[in-house]
Amino acid sequence: MMPGMTATFEEARELARRTVVDARYPHISTYTLDAIWVLYDRVLRVDPESLDDPARDRFLLSKGHGPSAFYAVLAAKGFIPVAWLDTVAALESPLGSHPDATLVPGAEISSGSLGHGLPLGVGVALGLRATRYADAQVYVLIGDAELDEGSNHEAMAYAGAIGLANLNVVVADNASATHGWPGGIASRFEVHGWAAATADMGDHDALHAAFTAPHHDRPQVTVAAVRH
Amino acid sequence: MFRSDPLTDDHQQPTMRDAFAAHAADLLDADPRTAVVLADISADRFRAAAAIHPHRVINVGIREQLMIGVAGGLALAGMRPIAHTYAPFLVERAFEQVKLDFEHQGTSGVLVSVGASYDWAEGSFTHFSPRDVALFDTLPGWRVFVPGHAAEVPALLDRAVDSDQGAYLRLSLRHNAVPHGDADDTLTVLRSGTRATVVAVGPVLDNVLAATAGVDVTIAYTNTPRPLDSTGLRHLAALTGDTVVMVEPYLEGTSDWLITRALADRPHRLLSIGVGRDELRRYGTAAQHERLHGLDPDGIAARIRRFLDPADA
Prior knowledge:
- By secondary structure, chain A is an alpha/beta fold.
- In chain A, helix 8 links the parallel strand 4 and strand 5.
- By secondary structure, chain B is α/β, with parallel strands linked by helices.
- The chains are: A alpha/beta, B alpha/beta.
């Protein structure tokens, strides 16, 4: 495939499998593929030509550990050359086991340390609002275990309190949090005033419906449940 | 009576914090790229600015991790964020955010603290931050501004906001009688002598001047300790027998590595005077803590005397 080419989901899945960068965690690297694919394929207003457009939508991969699915979608959508996927994590490779936004076209943030993406996303959403690009949407992908980090809860409470409507969160829920989330993950957002939806990670139409459901006066969370 | 503000034995009016809030409001008016991010501290001083610029005066509540993350996100959206709270909460509590949410993202921001090393002495150790500048020395590219007088604050804030580097502005209630300093990063020579070059950073200057009255030393002032003017320091040191005294209002020895590096090719002597490492577990006033750390005129004079004339001590 050449840069700029739009692949199918099946092709993206093959690319993701090809780029599992950490042999210890093969599943962690790819289970987010469906959500990332649906966002880039059907939701986000961003392409390789609009990376400097201040009005573009932003996808922030907070769960930067295990980025194979993300790299695969960036390659499938022409943001990065497919050939980059074959040297992931090599010394001179722009693609590492944790993405570096200064090295990867299309990566909005550098991530890898958990709990940074959602606070950054709140800031980006506020910045878009302050610079009159409030129509641009910010999507932050976090993991259910990443929710352990208290910084997320600072962001959830604040974004809900101010009704930050251009902020969207996707929780990739593979039930990996050590102590679990009794009562569910969505309720933790809802109590702060967020709109919430739960969808099956494999159901692309359900993901699309959740990602694009209107939420004019509040942030929105989609809990994407991974079937084991 | 319990007081939530520092004892007023030595207040300057207006304070550096007043000067900062007033000038930050001007910058919000003048530059649509600027935004102020707060965590409740000083929110009252930004109420008028928030009414004019509701989207660019952002108070996240008592959430310092979020405050730094939001500032980093604003920078990603092309803005110039100014985050502000008490020094230990701004720098130490969310230090991983300071580390990752700016430079690692390819962006930068402006951090402005109050509290300094022991401003609110009654509040004690929880509100002291003598280690802040040393922490910024672990990060690449941060500028550090330490004004010695409220009148120095607006120009330093301008330089911090205009820069495309990370900038830390360290405000204090400790202050000199009048403003000093040049509008750049160079050392300002206030007095010339032959036996040592004494560098005073920010609010310790008046104590240094009092401590060295009648002593044959050069006095150089800076409110811009990072980047340290190593060229100027080499020049001044060469005129004073490569003998240097560094007096800093934060952790003693913070600048040793830079001075040693600047003079690495020449035999030299260095005395560092600053805030001690130990927790004192004392209350009282900032002036009393200054004395406990040997940063009052008598303490500075005694250490410089022992350094220059050990046989007489």
